[in-house]
From TrEMBL:
<keyword id="KW-1003">Cell membrane</keyword>
<keyword id="KW-0997">Cell inner membrane</keyword>
<keyword id="KW-0472">Membrane</keyword>
<dbReference type="InterPro" id="IPR050388">
    <property type="entry name" value="ABC_Ni/Peptide_Import"/>
</dbReference>
<feature type="domain" description="ABC transporter">
    <location>
        <begin position="9"/>
        <end position="258"/>
    </location>
</feature>
<keyword id="KW-0813">Transport</keyword>
<dbReference type="Pfam" id="PF00005">
    <property type="entry name" value="ABC_tran"/>
</dbReference>
<comment type="similarity">
    <text>Belongs to the ABC transporter superfamily.</text>
</comment>
<dbReference type="InterPro" id="IPR003439">
    <property type="entry name" value="ABC_transporter-like_ATP-bd"/>
</dbReference>
<dbReference type="InterPro" id="IPR003593">
    <property type="entry name" value="AAA+_ATPase"/>
</dbReference>
<dbReference type="GO" id="GO:0015833">
    <property type="term" value="P:peptide transport"/>
</dbReference>
<keyword id="KW-0067">ATP-binding</keyword>
<dbReference type="GO" id="GO:0005524">
    <property type="term" value="F:ATP binding"/>
</dbReference>
<dbReference type="Pfam" id="PF08352">
    <property type="entry name" value="oligo_HPY"/>
</dbReference>
<protein>
    <submittedName>
        <fullName>Peptide/nickel transport system ATP-binding protein</fullName>
    </submittedName>
</protein>
<keyword id="KW-1278">Translocase</keyword>
<dbReference type="InterPro" id="IPR017871">
    <property type="entry name" value="ABC_transporter-like_CS"/>
</dbReference>
Amino acid sequence: MGEVQEPVLEIEDLSVAYVTNAGLVHAVSDVNLTVRRGEIVGLVGESGSGKSTMAYAIMRLLRGDAVVTKGRVRVLGQDVYALSEKELRSFRWSKMSMVFQSAMSALNPVMTVETQIIDTLLAHRPDLSRAQARERAQELLDLVRIDRKHLNSYPHELSGGMRQRVVIAIAIALNPALVIMDEPTTALDVVVQRSILDEIRRIQAQVGFAILFVSHDFSLVAELASRVAIMYAGRIVELTPSHLLHLSERHHPYTEGLLKAIPQLTAEEVTIQGIGGYPPDLQDLPPGCAFHPRCPYAMDICTRVRPAQVQAGEKLLECHLFQGAEVNTHV
Ligand SMILES: Nc1ncnc2c1ncn2[C@@H]1O[C@H](COP(=O)(O)OP(=O)(O)OP(=O)(O)O)[C@@H](O)[C@H]1O
């Protein structure tokens, strides 16, 4: 690895809850995470673990019923929650942007590709002439490898994969330092999914923005990202370099469960071992470690005391099995 790059995203002690009639749903709890310039970090976890809530919280796009109860989000050193609404509008897309799961809902069905890209550019860069914006729109289509003739196409005239490429082109139009991708390939079939991933990797290497890549697909994230954050019940229970993500390494028992759940192809059969039990109720989290009711290694202390974050080699973990490893003070 080369020199350490400056952080583009710093999440400190972030907690987010949804306010419901039945009480608070603790969707994200005490999250710490740093993403550095040009880095790809994956965020994985089962459905409902809080991944999307975290992504929206970073973008300050949470809906009205969600509140940041604690912590801070900084992008390029700027506290995202300290910006005025006006400042936020120009900060989004120019410094940080997001690729959503559904390209169809991200694109305007009654506007051509060219108009959508140009409008995004001009909304943030009023200094650009229309001709300059058009030129940039062409460059962006070249970058995502879509024929320029599609500048005049409407979203419904494009395939799902092409639409997602257009969404990526719009997300990177203003050269943001950070792009959050929330399940960007989930709606696509496996072959198209693969080509979009290759495309993301290629463009990222060429342009150099950092990516926080959110997905429930563990093997896909491990392949794309250099580090992976594993989320369970709103907490990052493990943060590990992806090259260490295999069963011969010691992991958080939840990570171990996810690794065992990846289909293993042997000569005779495909074996999958799921994780028993269900994720906890986020309104009524179990005491101690939230994973203890499902954990095959649970000890008495796990039912009572929430584990502190510890550093074990290159990994950060929240698990009593690793207590005694060096206590982490810096993420
Ligand atoms: N508006 C809401 N009101 C109450 N609870 C909510 C609301 N939106 C989400 N939640 C809850 O917050 C938790 C985290 O949801 P979130 O969508 O962030 O998880 P996720 O890991 O992204 O899941 P998925 O992969 O299914 O999108 C879930 O338990 C969900 O039920």
